[in-house]
């Protein structure tokens, strides 16, 4: 049996990182549901301390997600969840995201993402395949090829 899954990325500021990655990948940030959040608080499943405001909207403090724009809003979908963690990133990621832009667009994407806050780390090559390794604004590595 094959399973569907989502990728979860640890983050110091999940909503800011979700915004950054949505822009980087051309994906969309999943919308918040303030009515649901209020209902969970009213029913005792959460407290106001579990929430924050991001871009003027009530959101869960500990997470934000992005999804592919062509996928469904609910159910099985391509999704990345950014989860708040208390500790800072200290070592290289053991898992990272690769996104494919085509070899003719790697330099332009590197420049665009650098202008948006990414950091160039190094170039790689295996046979004819090349890539650029970068880090997002919170230090998570990713590759573009």
Reconstruct the topology from this structure:
Elements (H helix, E strand, L loop, with lengths): L6 E5 L2 H12 L2 E2 L4 H9 L8 E4 L2 E4 L2 E5 L11 E6 L12 E3 L6 H10 L3 E8 L2 E7 L5 E4 L1
Parallel strand pairs: 1-6, 7-10
Antiparallel strand pairs: 2-5, 3-4, 5-6, 8-9, 9-10
Q: Can you walk me through this structure?
A:
With 145 residues, this protein is an alpha+beta fold. The chain has a 4-stranded mixed sheet, covered by helices on one side. The protein is elongated and about 60 Å long. A hairpin with a 2-residue loop joins β3 (51-54) and β4 (57-60). The chain folds into 2 domains: 1-88, no CATH class; 96-145, 2,3-Dihydroxybiphenyl 1,2-Dioxygenase, domain 1 (Roll), CATH 3.10.180.10. 18% of the residues are buried. The protein contains 3 helices and 10 strands.
In short, what is this structure?
With 145 residues, this protein is an alpha+beta fold. It has 2 domains: 1-88, no CATH class; 96-145, 2,3-Dihydroxybiphenyl 1,2-Dioxygenase, domain 1, CATH 3.10.180.10.
Features:
single chain, 145 residues, alpha+beta, 2,3-Dihydroxybiphenyl 1,2-Dioxygenase, domain 1, 2 domains, 4-stranded mixed sheet, 3 helices
Largest sheet: 4 strands, mixed
The arrangement of helices and strands along the chain is: EHEHEEEEEHEEE
Q: Give the amount of beta strand, in percent.
A: 25-35%
Shape: elongated
- Using the CA coordinates, give the radius of gyration: 17 Å
Poorly predicted spans: none
Count of structural domains: 2
**Count, helices:** 3
Instruction: Please estimate the helix content.
Output: 10-25%
Structural class of the helix and strand makeup? Answer: alpha+beta
Distance between the termini: 31 Å
What is the number of beta strands?
10
- The order of strands across the largest sheet is 1-6-5-2
Tell me, rounded to a whole number, the average pLDDT. Answer: 93
